[in-house]
Design a protein that fits this description.
The structure holds 2 protein chains of 2 kinds. By secondary structure, chain A is mainly alpha-helical. Chain A has 16 helices and no strands. By secondary structure, chain B is mainly alpha-helical. Chain B has one domain (71-307): MetI-like fold. The chains are: A mainly alpha, B mainly alpha.
């Protein structure tokens, strides 16, 4: 498996100089030997890149604007609203007042928090345990891990194992079967292997054991990779919906937000709890478009809150190389 | 700095007995226990569950007591037109994605790499990566809002008295729809690999060839593309090896709208005709078929890469 995402190690230098570390291939100016760009070329380039940005941002903009619109504005536009006229948070008020959505939000946040914590703990320990070369059996365990990337029992045998362990309808069925990502462990391990050996040896001479070294030396110098792997895990849990369909399809109390989004917005069905909960037709089939879009926004917001802090770690400079056993 | 897989100097373990080494490394071993245990239970035990493909699995009596039926399930499978339909859809989709999707991230990486301002480049990158972190439910909902029956496009057509065009429920154009969804969601993220390859090319090469009179396009052909060849080949090998995996949730979610004939692929086949109908052995047989063919494909694609003098997934 090739891992190409390069994540910069938290640098001591950064704190000392207070400046960002010099990045690879910084090119502020066009090199003298390069011919000046043609006008047509520049225009085509600008248009293409502008389009890439637009296809991502324009739909998001329209969805946010519609969620903030009044019913009158939606009617006037004949559907989605492109430009905000009268902004209202009514849709959000109704949405957060609905017990099914509130419940789903809590479920999603809970699964994401617990799942990410479990995955990170297990992965960090395993990655460090395999990162000290020359340790007993680390090659064997590594092969054991990597094999799972190529051979798997597939959907049905996994489902049978989980149900035979009594996982049907249980919370752990949404977390444990997918708690370990070998790929993420390899990313962490590549980083930990790279931690200064001198530093570790010095700590060892001072009497620090492996637990202490992991906690006090390896983790603090690997904050960026920890953050990125946590993002990968967190997004995985936040986005998961199929395992809900598999293990608790009928129990709407345990639906996460993605499942509400599918049922209510995508399929256009009413939400089961809402009708009974006394919100009348608010969440039935003919619900206002703004309310539907508010549900969409609710599933994106946590990502948009975290993303700006994470994306700066996706530094692409050096090929990480093949993370092979 | 680089995170290339460089091993730090090994612990000196040449003359130590296994017992001493076990004692010394017991914390390290202990640390791997949770992950290994989870993988054993949820990845290795299910491998034995594949035995159900040769049984008539009965959930009430479990794997050990179900009746063995040999290759009966496979016989049914190979006589099932729905199975061949799913396999056909899968291969067709794979081919279309290879032709339409695969070149896009390469082209975008080249384009992005030529942007001089680093801040602008980082900004575009961040935005292009974003949809990768969306769920399929969300991605498809966004597509529905843009192109569905009540979506933005038809809203515009209707207000201009042009007949509407429902892309989301049309089985004939479904291949193009799912491919464009895949491009929208994943093409941006796929750039990363190629950008990394581009960054690894020695810039002196460009300078000396420019001095020698090579133009923009000749430099692209003789320096840039050869410099990316290894990564392109690797991605191609992965794509070919995964030819039977075209996505799962994407099809599951849209099956209702376009019908099973267009939307069934091998993975959803195993779900709908295995789990959803309690016909576990049948689904497991379909899954096993897919796994075996996929392993052969990975092996074959790697051979191909070696034949072209590239490393592929693993070295010779």
């Amino acid at each position: 498996m090739t891992e190409t995402l390069t994540i910069e190690r938290t640098k001591e230098k950064r704190e000392v100089t207070g400046r960002k570390p010099v990045r690879h291939r910084k090119r502020a100016k066009r090199p003298v030997w390069e011919e000046p760009p043609t006008a047509a070329g520049q225009t085509a380039k600008g248009l293409t890149l502008g389009m890439v940005v637009a296809v991502v941002l324009v739909p998001l903009w329209i969805i946010v604007v519609t969620s903030l619109s009044t019913q009158a504005a939606v009617n006037r536009a004949g559907g989605l609203v492109i430009w905000p006229t009268d902004v209202t948070f009514e849709a959000y008020r109704v949405m957060l007042g609905d017990s099914t959505v509130r419940n789903a939000l809590l479920v999603s946040l809970g699964i994401t928090a617990v799942g990410t914590a479990v995955s990170m703990a297990v992965s960090i320990l395993c990655a460090y345990g395999l990162s000290r070369s020359g340790s007993v059996a680390h090659r064997f365990i590594l092969v054991l891990l990597i094999l799972t990337m190529f051979v798997s029992g597939g959907l049905i045998p996994t489902f049978l194992v989980v149900t035979e362990l009594g996982g049907y309808g249980q919370w752990w069925a949404l977390i444990l079967p997918s708690a370990v990502s070998v790929f993420n462990i390899l990313v962490l391990r590549a980083f930990y292997s790279d931690t200064s050996v001198d530093l570790i040896e010095a700590a060892r001479i001072d009497g620090a054991g492996d637990w202490r070294i992991l906690w006090s030396i390896v983790l603090p110098t690997s904050r960026a990779v920890t953050a990125v792997v946590a993002l990968f895990y967190g997004v995985g849990y936040w986005n998961s919906f199929f395992n809900v369909m598999l293990y608790m399809p009928t129990d709407s109390e345990k639906w996460p937000l993605q499942y509400v989004l599918l049922t209510y917005v995508n399929r256009g069905n009413g939400l089961p709890g809402s009708v009974n909960a006394g919100f009348g037709t608010q969440f039935s089939q003919t619900a206002p478009l703004s309310l539907q879009m508010a549900v969409v926004v609710l599933t994106i917001v946590p990502l948009l809150v975290v993303y700006p802090f994470m994306q700066k770690h996706f530094r692409v400079g050096v090929l990480t190389g093949a993370v092979k056993g | 700095m680089s995170t290339v897989d460089t091993e730090p100097p090994a612990r000196k373990s040449g003359r130590l007995s296994l017992r001493v080494r076990l004692r010394r490394d017991r914390s390290l071993l202990l640390m791997t226990v949770p992950a290994v245990a989870l993988l054993l239970v949820f990845n290795y035990v299910p491998l034995f569950g594949l035995l159900t493909a040769f049984q008539d699995y009965n959930p009430l009596v479990g794997v050990w007591n179900s009746e063995w039926v040999g290759f009966d399930q496979f016989e049914y499978l190979f006589n099932d037109s729905l199975f061949w339909g799913s396999l056909g859809n899968t291969l067709y989709l794979s081919f279309v994605q290879l032709v339409l999707f695969f070149p896009i991230p390469i082209a975008l990486a080249l384009l992005l790499n030529s942007v001089l301002s680093e801040r602008l480049r980082n900004l575009i990158q961040s935005i292009a990566y974003l949809p990768h972190f969306f769920s399929w439910v969300l991605a498809i909902t966004i597509f529905q809002q843009m192109f569905g029956g009540a979506g933005l496009l038809n809203q515009f057509l209707r207000s201009n008295d042009i007949s509407t065009w429902d892309i989301m429920t049309n089985p004939d154009t479904f291949v193009l729809l799912v491919t464009s969804q895949a491009i929208w969601k994943e093409a941006g993220w796929s750039i990363i690999v190629f950008l990394a390859a581009l960054a690894a090319i020695n810039t002196d090469l460009y300078e000396s060839s420019a001095v020698d009179g090579a133009g923009r396009w000749r430099r692209l052909w003789h320096i840039t593309l050869p410099g990316m060849a290894g990564v392109i080949m690797l991605m191609l090998v992965l794509r070919l090896g995964n030819a039977l995996t075209v996505g799962f949730e994407q099809f599951l979610i849209q099956r209702e709208a376009v019908g099973h004939e267009a939307a069934d692929v091998l993975d959803t086949f195993a779900f709908y005709y295995g789990i959803a109908t309690n016909n576990y052995s049948y689904g497991a047989a379909a899954g096993l078929f897919k796994s075996v063919i996929s392993l052969l494909l990975i092996w074959g694609a790697n051979k191909l890469a070696h034949a072209f003098g590239e490393d592929g997934l693993y070295r010779k």
